[in-house]
């Protein structure tokens, strides 16, 4: 739900309080993963300090040697850095971070597959699809779904044969 209020009817503080109340009632995304004080700190840091703080916050102590942890840390750092570049407030950044964190958790829960999907149409002749004549732009939801498909299994392949030398 979005509250639409004519700009000249109420003062900014009244509108702000109304929006905050709606957010509280509907379960706002801000500050669910990263608290407000940490959000403010992150937005004031350079990228190296930001990465160190995120590694500390998410207990990614082995990010220098563990590919999975390094990937997660890079993902989080790039998201926070992008939010900073966009000029997000601490609340906006925290809400955005909750979204990308939830997306990553959902991806981690899916099993990684290395084989192509089974085709149950063996009784029918195989006809390759026609090439598209015009590329259709994807909606935001479709883009997120495609991103999710690309990221499934990222970092889940860990080789036991890696040794330091």
SSE map:
Blueprint: H1 12-26, H2 36-44, H3 47-57, H4 67-85, H5 90-109, H6 140-151
Distance between the termini: 57 Å
Largest sheet: none
Which stretches of 5+ consecutive residues score pLDDT under 50? Answer: 5-12, 157-165
Structural class, by secondary structure, is: mainly alpha
* Rg, alpha carbons: 22 Å
Approximately how much helix is present in the residues?
40-55%
State mean pLDDT (0 to 100 scale): 73
What characteristic shape results from the CA principal axes? globular
Number of helical elements: 6
Beta percentage is under 5%
Q: Write down the secondary-structure element order.
A: HHHHHH
Instruction: Write down how many β-strands occur, each being a DSSP E stretch of 2 or more residues.
Output: 0
Task: Describe the overall structure.
It is a single chain. By secondary structure, the protein is mainly alpha-helical. 52% of the residues lie in helices and 0% in strands. α3 crosses α4 and α4 (67-85) packs antiparallel against α5.
Summarize the structure.
By secondary structure, the protein is mainly alpha-helical. Helix content is 52%, strand content 0%.
Name its key features:
single chain, mainly alpha, globular
